[in-house]
Design goal:
Elements (H helix, E strand, L loop, with lengths): L3 H23 L11 H11 L11 H8 L7 H4 L12 E3 L6 H8 L6 H4 L17 E6 L5 E6 L10 E2 L12 H4 L8 E2 L1 H6 L2 E5 L5 E2 L4 E5 L7 E13 L6 E14 L5 E9 L3 E2 L3 E4 L2 H4 L2 E2 L9 E7 L11 E4 L12 E6 L3 E3 L2 E3 L5 E3 L4 E3 L3 E11 L4 E8 L8 E3 L2
Antiparallel strand pairs: 1-2, 2-3, 4-14, 5-10, 6-8, 7-12, 8-11, 9-10, 9-13, 10-11, 15-16, 15-24, 16-23, 17-22, 17-24, 18-21, 19-20, 22-23
Amino acid sequence: MVSIQQVTRTSTPRGLIGCAALALLLAAGCQSGPPKSAAEDAAPATVASATPAARPPDNAIEAALANAPADSAASAEAATTPVINPTAPLSYTVKRGDTLWDISAMYLRDPWLWPEIWHVNPKVPNPHLIYPGDVLTLGYGADGSPQVTVSQGSTLRVQPLVRSSPLDGPIATIPFEAIRAFLGKPGLVTRDDIKKSPQVVAMRDRHVVAGEGQEIYAKGLEKKGPGAYAVVQIGEELVDPENGKVRGFMGVYTGTAQFDSVAKVSKGTLTDSARETNAGDLLFTVDMDAAQTDIIPHAPADDLSGQIMAVVDGVSLIGQYQVVAINRGTKHGMERGHVLAIDQKGEKVYNTSCRGSDGKKNWCMGDLVKLPDERAGTLLVFKTYQDVSYGLVVNATVPVRVADIVRKP
């Protein structure tokens, strides 16, 4: 193919010769065509200065950042370009048992970018709602951007957000049971809480433990008043793996107790039980507003990274839909709904392979080698404190462990 520069260089000498000859005969200038502007004369130089293509980005967020203006202060908003999965269906009927996270992952490489492709139909009442039976249709706008629209398949609908409360009828967006024990209840217990909070002192009939329907006795409720209280067991210490500081204790929800009256020693009934209640467990007021909060998945605007401190129930290998505590909180910029990548922390191993002067391989204790971190899964933050946050492992490709790294995806 002949470039613009080649055409210009080839045709210009002939034009000049023709003009010179006519100038001698007619004593006047000539042109082989209309006069060229300065911008047109500079055009070939502009083409010649084209730079080679940059390396393609690794994910949708990097793609959006690469296309953002260099002087833009809104880089976080630019980092929201959705990438459609090649296997995404053109049409999908929502089924009971579906979750919004699963549907988002079916359409998008980065599921937390779902709001970027959700197209609102102003003619449909409550257009942000999805229910079983609704039909999702994938299309593209005039600017080529992907859009998912919904055709109403039932009279009931639910917002396409991560709902953190149980709903009768609509699809769940994340498994409610996985985080139910943390909604409206404290997940972090401080030393001050241990000193000042009301606590269970005994079970009726001298039972060692209590469950749903059984009666318990508590002290410290005189100034709190009657009502429903979350019973929380003091769990393991939350030790920051970076500096060894104790950030508090994991609060383990055991049940809900109803106290109709209070006294120096109050009697209540366990109306709900997640595990056995013991003497010494603490009582906290149930925050129903927090229990109804919607969670909107989104990537952090700034670079955030931390480590997993602990896992609920103390298992050694962490899998999908298990809850973990991380050593980053609101003071670090962590928000409810943040989606983080989980990296399996690379181990340190000794190179035990050596070769002698004869070239033969021998066993030896060589240098200590740090293996690279490997992507292990995805975490959705659903509860934050100043120094600590709780997240749900929504995806795990390999077992996750305490001290593994979490970071902006």
